[in-house]
Amino acid sequence: MIPTTVFSGYILGVNYQNSITSIINKNEYFLNTEKANILNNMEAMELTSQLALSDREVLDYMLSNRDFTAEELINFNTHSFHNLQYIMYNNPNISNLRFFTSNKYAREIWPIIYNERRIAGENWANEFYAQPEAVWWTIYRGPEELRGSTEGERQDYLNFASLVREVKYPLDQHLALLQVNMRLDVFFSNIYGNLQEASTQLLAIDRNSHLYYNGTSSFYEKIAPEDIRSEFALHTQGSEGNFQFTHEGIPYLCLYTSIERLDSKLLSVVSLESSYNDMNKTRLAIGGATLMLVLILSLITYKLLSVILKRLHLLRDSMKKVRQGDFNVEIPQLGGDEVGELGNHIRQMLSKINELIAEAVNKQASSKEAELNSLKNQIDAHFLYNTLENLKMLAEIEGQLVISDTLTSLGAMLRYNLHWTTHYVRLYEEIQHIQNYIAVMNIRYGGKLELRLDVRQQYRQQEILKMSLQPIVENALKYGMNAPGLRKRGLMIVIHAYEQDDFMYIEIRDNGAGISAERLYNINLALQLDPAAAAMYAPPVNGDSAYDTSGSGIGLRNVHLRIQLHYGKTSGLWLESVEGEYTKVTIKVPYLILSGGLAE
Predict the structure, then answer these.
(1) Which of 35, 48, 373, 424 is the most buried (most CB within 10 A)?
(2) 530-581, pLDDT tens digit by residue?
(3) Distance (Å, rounded) from C-alpha 88 to C-alpha 492?
(4) Does residue 330 come out as left (phi exceeding 0), alpha (psi in the -120 to 50 range) or beta?
């Protein structure tokens, strides 16, 4: 009993220290996570300020020594000021971006460009002018938007994290102040969030010893934030660390770290009341249970060891055979306790190993077979390419240039169809394939087909699924030519692309026979349903429907499902048509430029 009691007391002390260490590690992680979020927000604000200062037209506007004409103001608002707005709104966490200039010729343009007299007397401006740094960070309480000082006008005041930068242009001449603001509940997202534990709270203290915390938390019912600030002032040493203190009989742990550029401290305060109470309860429970456990364990230890060790030795011998390469070892049933469960798991593991070995062998055989099939396909494809090239040369020798050009287009189509290294291609590659298709089909229709492209150069690098446009153009040609008189005057197909709300829209329009309103409704409805339900609404395939899957095996719904499979349910296609006038198919996919980044 004596060594058990001493050992239990030692273990309790060690467990309490381990618990404190675990709490410290956990809250250091929370603290570093919040600090990383803050530094990311600061990087975003700095990037926003750098982007704003990179526009020389904005600086020239604030440097002007004359009044601008109306046309110049309109041009500035349309281009440079629009770019500033784009920079500000591109990051939703940025509250506002503001220039304050003393140039009387630079007109104020809300909500970005203001006269410097508007901030005369504001504390943050005075503090900035009092220090020599060109870039300065602060936390201040100010209006959500800077408006005029009209008497009676309402202003909502919020706490902001602010980056202030002096703009010197040209030749180190003071031109303006640039201010980038972020609301403090966004800047300190975890401090003001509701995801913190009830026993832990994050706080921030700025250079003026102002506290920022979540005032709605019940944590502050037992300790006031001012008391935390007083304890912090007494115990803090260096840029980071931790300390413990007691307030009204409740122990607390405080961890802190510095945010140097903001000249502030980030704190994590933890109530140890629960841990302390748990330790006392555990001490009493161990003391009462120790005597009973010693007596009981003394009686049953020998029998337990004799049974358990016997079965463990059996498992050990079995695993020795497995180590020697025998995976067909038979492990007997060892009961329903932990040892029996362990034996059952080992038995299942051996069965799974045998399955994996068989699966690996089958995969290796399948891989070899696929390689042989791929090699065969390559040989067949090269045979077709070489044959077409020979026919093309014969046509050129015979002076049959139309046949030669048609064979060139046909060869390009074959290469495009057979060369599937990836599901994705650039938009211009799909358009080139369509151009080759139209060139081939013009032989059949006597040159009555015309393809027009309305695709800006930067959109031609847009990612698109391979063979997603060609079935639509094929449908336009197949069913659009059914209009009376269209074979005489010809069919025009127009491909138009534009970007909106981070999505690329590609329209394929023809001036063909069109689709009736009822059939158009059923087609669009079927595109949105699952395959079983779509069969109820799909129009019949009778030779004059644009919804057809019986020809090449790739219909509009197949294209729609492929797009949704690769890009999600927000993407897809739909139809618009007026019978006897036109049919238009619109494809919606995420805006993604494969050459790197978004197009300007």
Answers:
(1) 48
(2) 654 454 544 444 444 334 433 333 478 888 988 998 898 899 999 999 988 8
(3) 43
(4) beta
